[in-house]
């Protein structure tokens, strides 16, 4: 479909696609096998100004919005979800500063982020606080002009590789979720260390590590927003980032469909290419239809955000849950269309299927997204009474 992208948006798409095809596709299998962080590709993205897409021009970025970011993420995800996760998680970690940071914090950190000089990560999840984000245990205690952080964060994307971390910690346990605050913590800060690099089913090029805070002292001015606003910072951050996860779903699904069609045209059975069989055509038709529906929803929600919508929780949850469920179904069907070949590492669809699963889990499981949508529907119904 024609989504009436502007000339600039089309250029962004074409640039991201070129990088994906020329720089990512040739090495994606090796990155996956070796579980190697894609630093060289990140440098290419930095030189191409793609790290600055969503950063305001006054801080060295391109001043674009959610749609442009989704377009770039989608194209990278067609090639490798591990690479696109590294890129998208940088935006996730940046949103707290972008949405709630002080002028001083923005001036200090955003120019380097926009230039791709310093990678960012977001630290919310803990061993006993995944879906229950309000149950975090990491604490931050004010001592003089510093906050002292203690605790751990689990399964943090870009952990150990990033230079800048936006961390949610409890400053007042008695206030529950309203007692959480957000902080900027730089790599190399005394008392801030990393656990082992996790070995994962998919997105193996992406680095996932535990963050460990042991009497880590952070300057008072590194608090984002005000004390007690950490939970709001986290939720608003996720509201803005979930369209990007939806875009990842669209991208990996499109990549899998492309591979399935190519294979079905070349594979012959009973004297005919298997794409001539109605059973295969119907599978491909369903895959293509689901992808287009997901893309339409993701782009629409991204435009909704860019047009200044304030309450976007329901819509961003819809974009995430629908597109990532589509990604899982389509990648599974791509393997099925390709049969035994699809199951082999020689072809990329088995990797795409492994990679796609995480999209239904991170940045809020799809079950949690349905809770968000359901609660929003209840509130809307109450207002109509």
Description:
The chain is an alpha+beta fold. The protein has 3 domains: 7-114, Acyl-CoA dehydrogenase/oxidase, N-terminal domain (Butyryl-Coa Dehydrogenase, subunit A, domain 1, Orthogonal Bundle); 120-230, Butyryl-CoA Dehydrogenase, subunit A, domain 2; 234-384, Butyryl-CoA Dehydrogenase, subunit A, domain 3 (Up-down Bundle), CATH 1.20.140. 53% of the residues lie in helices and 15% in strands. It contains 11 helices and 10 strands. It has a 4-stranded mixed sheet with strand order 1-4-5-8. Strands 2-3-7-6 form a 4-stranded antiparallel sheet, covered by helices on one side. Strand 9 and strand 10 form a beta hairpin. The longest helix is centred in the middle third of the chain and has 37 residues, at 230-266. The radius of gyration is 21 Å and the shape is globular.
Radius of gyration, in Å, reads: 21 Å
Number of helices: 11
Query: In what range is the share of β-strand residues?
Result: 15-25%
CATH class of the largest domain: Mainly Alpha
Overall outline: globular
**Largest beta sheet: strand ordering:** 1-4-5-8
Largest sheet: 4 strands, mixed
Distance between the termini: 39 Å
Features:
385 residues; alpha+beta; Butyryl-Coa Dehydrogenase, subunit A, domain 1; Butyryl-CoA Dehydrogenase, subunit A, domain 2; Butyryl-CoA Dehydrogenase, subunit A, domain 3; 3 domains; four-stranded mixed β-sheet; four-stranded antiparallel β-sheet; 11 helices; 10 strands; 53% helix; 15% strand; globular
């Amino acid at each position: 479909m024609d989504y009436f992208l502007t000339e600039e948006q089309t250029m962004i798409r074409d640039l991201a696609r070129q990088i994906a095809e020329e720089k990512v596709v040739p090495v994606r299998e090796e990155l996956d096998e070796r579980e190697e962080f894609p630093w060289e590709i990140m440098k290419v993205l930095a030189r191409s100004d793609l790290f600055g897409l969503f950063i305001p021009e006054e801080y060295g970025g391109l001043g674009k919005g959610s749609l442009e970011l989704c377009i770039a993420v989608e194209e990278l995800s067609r090639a490798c979800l591990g690479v696109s996760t590294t890129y998208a998680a940088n935006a996730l970690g940046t949103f707290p500063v972008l949405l709630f940071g002080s002028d001083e914090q923005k001036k200090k950190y955003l120019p380097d982020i926009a230039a791709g000089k310093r990678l960012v990560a977001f630290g919310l999840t803990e061993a006993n606080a995944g879906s229950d984000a309000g149950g975090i245990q990491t604490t931050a205690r004010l001592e003089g002009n510093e906050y002292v952080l203690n605790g751990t964060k689990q399964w943090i994307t870009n952990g150990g590789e990033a230079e800048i971390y936006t961390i949610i910690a409890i400053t007042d346990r008695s206030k529950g979720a309203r007692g959480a605050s957000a902080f900027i913590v730089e790599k190399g800060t005394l008392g801030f260390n990393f656990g082992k690099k996790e070995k994962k089913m998919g997105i193996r090029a992406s680095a996932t590590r535990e963050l460990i805070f042991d009497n880590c002292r952070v300057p008072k001015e590194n608090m984002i927003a005000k004390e007690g606003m950490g939970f709001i910072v986290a939720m608003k951050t996720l509201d803005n980032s979930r369209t990007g996860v939806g875009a990842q779903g669209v991208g990996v699904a499109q990549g899998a469909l492309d591979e399935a069609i190519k294979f079905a045209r070349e594979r012959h059975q009973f004297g005919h290419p298997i794409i001539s069989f109605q059973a295969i055509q119907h599978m491909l038709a369903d895959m293509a239809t689901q992808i287009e529906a997901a893309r339409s929803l993701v782009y629409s929600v991204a435009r909704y955000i860019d047009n200044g919508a304030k309450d976007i929780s329901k819509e961003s949850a819809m974009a995430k849950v629908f597109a990532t469920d589509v990604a899982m179904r389509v990648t599974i069907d791509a393997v099925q269309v390709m049969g035994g070949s699809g199951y082999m590492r020689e072809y990329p669809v088995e990797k795409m299927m492994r990679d796609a699963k995480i999209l239904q889990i991170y940045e809020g499981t799809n079950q949690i997204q349905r809770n968000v949508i359901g609660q929003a529907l209840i509130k809307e119904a109450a207002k109509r009474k």
